[in-house]
Amino acid sequence: MIRILPRPQHIEEREGRLLLDYHCRITMDSSCPSEVFFYASQLAEQLKKSSGIELLIDRRTSGAHKGIVLCMSEEAGITRENKKEKEAYRLEITPEGVTVCAAEKEGLFNSVQTLRQLIIQYGSSLPCLYIEDYPELSVRGWFMDVTRGRIPKMTYLKELADRCSLYKINQLHLYIEHTFLFDGLSEVWRDDTPLTAQDILEFDAYCAERNIELVPSVATFGHLYKVLRTKTFHELSEVEEAEGTAFSFYERMCHHTLNSTDDRAYELVCRLIDEYSPLFRSNLFNINCDETFDLGRGRGKERADEIGSHVMYVQWVNRVCEHVKALGKRPMFWGDIIAAHPEAIKELPEDVICMTWDYSPTPREINVKKLWENGAHQYLCPGVQGWNQAIHLLDNAYENIKQMTIFAHKYDGEGLLNTDWGDFGHFQHPELSMVGIIYGAAFSWNSDIMEKSAINADISIIEYGDCSASLVEVISHMSNQAVVNWGEFVRILENCRYQVAEREVTAFWEKYDEQTENSQKQIEFCNEAIRNDMAKVSALLVGIEEGKRKYIAPILHMAEGQILINTMFGVIKNVHDGQQNPCTDKRALAEAFEIWYYEYRRQWHKISRESELYRIGELIFWLADYIREL
């Protein structure tokens, strides 16, 4: 069985095999531009890694060698619905050699990624086949929160771009609220380790080489928690927070929207856009503008009473969009607020992109349909279901991404933008996002959506080198064993510590009493299931490609973290219920969580800057001391 992700539109399996050896070469014919040398180098590196065979790269075709030929030709183009597919390609493997051909360099890059996946599986002995392929959605994107807790290192971002490009992801957004070294904003990023202009320029070039468009993405309305808690900018908040209010992961998600009636707020936003925009070659700019919960409830209430908060929202977005357009960029914004008044999309610039999101396993079609009926240009935006979790909810991710991709194909979506947010400190390790990223890449390329078991098997083999093809299915089962997730757990802890999540502790706990009835039995059952799945994953390691085993260690570590979260929750709930706690050694439990955090910090520093790691540490240390005192 030939495994390729995304699945090609047309593939013919043929008799015979091609054996590549040191006599062969990778030849770029004269039609190839200079960028194609990088594509050839990717092939040479992959073949060396997967088989030990080292092929020379050549451009001379007069005395052509057997091997791999890269070429560009108008005749290789594929036309669909009277439109030439820029990213289309043809690939043929015969016993005499490989020919990969496309009309555009983007298509040639895609063909090389397909060939790389075959080399990953078959090494230097390739099955004969013929492929004609093209994407059904022109944008297959990935959106990563790099602002609310975790700021990746450049080495990790580059590795992520490499891994995404293998599956033909061609757009990437790094979400920023305050984690860029903006001039004059040291008060905002002084306790962070922000990205710099040089970082962005370097990463933009790295992405472009891999056929990925890096899109600037800055919060310009809601979700400005750190900005609007500073002495300089707190007056720009719609609802002001009392000075000295303790930091709260929960409160960070709920408030801190700019006061749209204050021109100083608009001047600040324009300043950020003007400073950030020149660093990117993309002609897009993502202004975000989602979850403006406070709009019209504080300093702008008088205006809201006069014209309505939804009109205030459209006016602000329009104003920011016009500024973006004046810079020669096409604006994008999140569609959650405008979905309540879809006809208002006509009041925004005609080419604005509405990023319509829904993260439910059964997302609603109605919002997508209404925006489509009103002429919206849409990206459909599902999620990889990592936020608030120790282990990404892979079953939910599959269902959510599948359905949102179906909507994208049905309602003429311009693209799919798959998301991973950093709610509650970006506690989750980014590794398991790769499974959801590949779901999105596969389903947006080919509307013939694969069954979950089939794509999980393909991901296990291609991405992780798991010869059993079972790794992702085991992790999917493991991910369903959270009695409470990290986000819920943080709300419980902040309630105990600050009583910030609800006014009354009793009212807060009532939400959990029903779902955690007989919680101790449930905790024991779920923890045992996680341990069994951890044992299965560990047993698979010997059959996983050596270079990929490093990706498994953080998954096992986060699984142990979920066991501790489940157990700690049981202890705290018993205290709340006034019951005798079955856990007799609370000090040992507290120490176990501190030891776990030591490894968590080590894993964090492998791929992330220091950023806001200390906030997670502070909460865990408070919890450990709290448990010791019970």
In terms of topology, how is this protein built?
Layout: E1 10-19, E2 25-28, H1 36-51, E3 56-58, E4 67-72, E5 79-80, E6 83-84, E7 89-94, E8 97-102, H2 105-122, E9 125-133, E10 139-145, H3 154-166, E11 171-176, H4 186-189, H5 197-209, E12 213-218, H6 249-254, H7 263-276, E13 284-286, H8 301-307, H9 309-326, E14 330-334, E15 353-357, H10 366-373, E16 377-381, H11 394-410, E17 415-420, H12 423-426, H13 433-445, H14 452-462, H15 471-478, H16 486-497, H17 505-513, H18 519-540, H19 552-577, H20 586-607, H21 613-629
Parallel strand pairs: 2-3, 2-4, 4-8, 10-11, 10-17, 11-12, 13-14, 14-15, 15-16, 16-17
Antiparallel strand pairs: 1-9, 5-6, 7-8, 7-9
Helix pairs in contact: 1-2, 3-5, 8-9, 11-13, 15-18, 18-19, 19-20, 20-21
Describe this structure as you would to a colleague.
The chain has about 625 residues and is of the alpha/beta class. It has helices at about 35-50, 105-120, 155-165, 185-190, 195-210, 250-255, 265-275, 300-305, 310-325, 365-375, 395-410, 425, 435-445, 450-460, 470-480, 485-495, 505-515, 520-540, 550-575, 585-605, 615-630, and strands at about 10-20, 25-30, 55-60, 65-70, 80, 85, 90-95, 95-100, 125-135, 140-145, 170-175, 215-220, 285, 330-335, 355, 375-380, 415-420. The strands form 3 sheets. It has an 8-stranded parallel beta sheet with strand order 12-11-10-17-16-15-14-13. Strand 2, helix 1 (about 35-50) and strand 3 (about 55-60) form a beta-alpha-beta unit. Helix 15 packs antiparallel against helix 18 (about 520-540). The relative contact order is 0.09.
